[in-house]
Amino acid sequence: MNPHDESESFRCVRADAREPEGYRRVLGEAKAAFLHTDPPYCLLTRRRKGGDLRDPRAHKKIDRDPIVRFETVRDYRAFTEAWMTRAVAHLTPDAPLAIWTNLLGKEPILAVARSLGYGHLRGEFVWGKRTTDKNANEQLLRVYEVALVLSRTPAPVLAPGDAPTVWAVVGGYDDDGEAQRWGGHPHHKPFSVVEPLVRTWSRPGDWVLDPFAGSGSMPAAALRLGRKAACLEVVPEWAERVAGRLRETAAPSPR
Ligand SMILES: C[S@@+](CC[C@H](N)C(=O)[O-])C[C@H]1O[C@@H](n2cnc3c(N)ncnc32)[C@H](O)[C@@H]1O
């Protein structure tokens, strides 16, 4: 891959987001204008009384399973520090961050971002995930994942004629059928859920960086909206799948 080929609209490689190599391969000397990412969530290792692991999947290596578990929240903070320090070195100084997390991951992510100079929490973008729990008069939404939007500078004051920023969206896990098409990643997000973030926090032609691509919901949305997508993913099967998805998004074949 030639990192200086201006005609490329996406680059995605198999790489560990805690290491510098992947970022260099996808961005070269270019800087991304928006970090939009969905890192592993702060899920803790499950143990039986007495300390034995409760979930045999926790024995699996990271390159076999997209779910990662951490022993403590402090370990999660160390993981966050390792990847975020690398990632922000490849951003323009005014690039905002939109980082998806489960509720337990919010504090460690905010603390690391603050320590790296992203002291302004512009807001929390909430996904009300439609559940199957409903009756004729009621539909239950579940909030499991939110995106924290951070910047180095405070929000400008809105003029009366300015459009408001969108801070909430409602949608199901696979409203657009893309999860089913691309492997059913447990943390897939439909286009309608990530679209407001991409539109609000980046411009067409910008590089958008996602160091944790999974099945590629963030980079695919960036491409659909005329941005350029740079992404990493450590699990080989997912890295391959996301590359295929982005090839198709960049040059859709008739279906
Ligand atoms: C929350 S999921 C991302 C889901 C994605 N947004 C989607 O739509 O499918 C996190 C992803 O990060 C990957 N991952 C875990 N540790 C990583 C690391 N150190 N470097 C790069 N990717 C990693 C996992 O394999 C997983 O696919």
UniProtKB/TrEMBL annotation:
SUPFAM superfamilies recorded: S-adenosyl-L-methionine-dependent methyltransferases
GO molecular function: DNA binding; N-methyltransferase activity
EC number of this enzyme: 2.1.1.-
Presence of keyword Magnesium: no
Residue ranges of every copy of the DNA methylase N-4/N-6 domain listed in the record: 35-237
A Pfam family hit: N6_N4_Mtase
Keyword Repeat tagged: no
Keywords tagged on the record: Methyltransferase, Transferase
UniProt xrefs under Gene3D superfamilies: Vaccinia Virus protein VP39
Top-level EC class as recorded in UniProt: transferase
A GO BP entry: methylation
InterPro entries: DNA_methylase_N4/N6, RM_Methyltransferase, SAM-dependent_MTases_sf
Family: Belongs to the N(4)/N(6)-methyltransferase family.
Name of the protein in its database record: Methyltransferase
Taxonomic lineage of the native organism: Bacteria, Pseudomonadati, Myxococcota, Myxococcia, Myxococcales
